[in-house]
Specification:
The structure holds two protein chains of two kinds. Chain A is of the alpha+beta class. In chain A, 49% of the residues lie in helices and 13% in strands. A three-stranded antiparallel sheet of chain A has the order 1-2-3, with no helix packed on it. The radius of gyration of chain B is 20 Å and the shape is globular. Chain B starts with 6 loop residues before the first strand and ends with a helix. Helices cover 32% and strands 24% of the residues of chain B. Classes of the chains: A alpha+beta, B alpha+beta. At the A-B interface, loops of A face strand 10 and strand 11 of B.
């Protein structure tokens, strides 16, 4: 199972990492990014989805996405 | 209540205080199980909370400290057995285990079953033997040294360096950053728990613990991993959560397989950021957080009772991750007459 798929994520934005017992909170965009990553979407596809869903341009969406990917990798939640 | 025969189980460690003994949690596990059990509390102090907790024990007896000597200890157990007809004793303190293991055959002759490690298993995992233990069983451990004299602290062998932990023979550990601190803690720990005092290199990482039950033939009957979420100033878990750490459980199964450990134990390990695991301590008994394992789906106190009575117990591997425990303190209101009975008669 991938690291991302092993996470328990509630619709309220509460993330539980069963391998370490750590928990995190995330916002709506974070939840959306995780959901798209689980679906196997590429970065460009995710940026496109974010711009459609929120009132944000592609540059800001890209910045948000890469910041969030850094966070997921730093916390060892992403392979 | 099931229709099966009533068994009488004696349990020590009723000191449910800020550094809690495991007895109350063990009893809760037994009461939650399918066992039809009568519980006899064995207490060393007359103010151990478990004596007075409503609905917990059917009767409590004071017993002499193991340091009083084996004769007084066994005589008292014989007296209690005569009154209560004990089937099982679950000892829960490191400091009493030696006597219970040494006299387990004598207890069995009295009809009292235990499920404990052998004396060899018990002795070889002592804190002062951990380096040899790690080498023998291929377990990674921080560098450590048993110290008999405080003068040795100023001349510790390399690579031991500050900060390190200084640990009592049975309980308590302090992180030290200089020689003055080390000497002060050495004097405190040696006065309280005797010699040796153990110096162990501090390892950076997250502490993770496993409660595990071995059948004595190399099989892991039960194992639940936990991360402490809140640690008291005494280093005790005041909150914890079950985790799914596959590597940690793999190491645990390997230790049980190689050591053929018989009974329950707690492994205390440090997981580094690089994903390496260092064994820092083995507690040769059920830990106080055992009720978390019960809540997560593995009733270890029940399994210990069944194994002690010679039943075959099917190993359990599944448990629920993300189950939490949070300790709390609660003021019980008691009556002086109960206290009087414990003081005067040594039983309640």
């Amino acid at each position: 199972m991938s690291k991302l798929n092993s996470l328990a994520i509630s619709e309220n934005g509460f993330i539980f990492k069963p391998s370490t017992g750590e928990s995190f909170t995330t916002n709506e965009i974070g939840l959306l990014i995780i959901s798209f990553l689980k679906q196997g979407k590429t970065a460009d596809e995710i940026i496109n989805e974010i711009t459609k869903e929120f009132d944000v341009d592609a540059i800001s969406a890209g910045r948000d996405l890469y910041e969030y990917l850094d966070f997921l990798k730093r916390e060892k939640m992403l392979d | 209540m099931s229709n099966q025969k009533t068994i009488t189980v004696a349990v020590t460690g009723l000191n449910n205080i800020d550094s809690p003994g495991p007895g109350v949690s063990v009893i809760r596990g037994i009461k939650d199980s399918g066992l039809n059990a009568r519980i006899i509390g064995l207490a060393y102090e007359n103010l151990e909370p478990g004596i007075y907790m409503p609905g917990l024990v059917d009767k409590t007896y004071l017993i002499p400290f193991p340091s009083t000597g084996s004769e007084a200890f066994i005589d008292r157990l014989a007296y209690i057995n005569e009154k209560e007809g004990l089937d099982i004793i679950i000892p829960n303190f490191d400091s009493e285990l030696y006597l219970f293991i040494k006299y387990s055959d004598q207890l069995l002759n009295m009809g009292i079953h235990t499920f404990l490690p052998t004396l060899k298993q018990f002795e070889e995992r002592h804190k002062d033997n951990l380096p040899e233990y790690g080498e023998k069983y291929g377990i990674k451990m921080p560098v450590s040294k048993a110290i008999q004299n405080s003068k040795e602290l100023s001349n510790l062998p390399k690579p031991l360096s500050y900060p390190y932990y200084i640990k009592g023979k049975f309980y308590e550990a302090f992180k030290v950053n200089n020689n003055n601190q080390a000497v002060s803690y050495f004097n405190r720990l040696s006065a309280k728990w005797g010699l040796p005092v153990v110096v162990q290199q501090a390892i950076n990482g997250t502490e993770v613990n496993v409660i595990v039950l071995g059948d004595g033939e190399g099989n892991t009957v039960s194992a639940v991993a936990m991360r402490k979420q809140y640690i008291t100033d005494k280093g005790k878990a005041w909150g914890g959560i079950t985790i799914n750490d596959e590597r940690l459980l793999e190491i645990t199964h390997d230790i049980i397989k190689k050591t053929k450990w018989r009974g329950a134990m707690e492994l205390e390990m440090i997981k580094t950021d690089e994903g390496e695991y260092y064994l820092i301590e083995i507690n040769p008994r059920i830990p106080a957080w055992v009720y978390l394992a019960v809540g997560a789906g593995q009733n270890i106190p029940e399994m210990v009772c069944r194994l002690a009575m010679g039943e075959k117990v099917i190993p359990v591997t599944e448990y629920e991750y993300g189950k939490m425990f949070i300790r709390y303190s609660w003021d019980l209101i008691g009556d002086i007459s109960d206290f009087e009975k414990i003081i005067i008669f040594g039983e309640l």
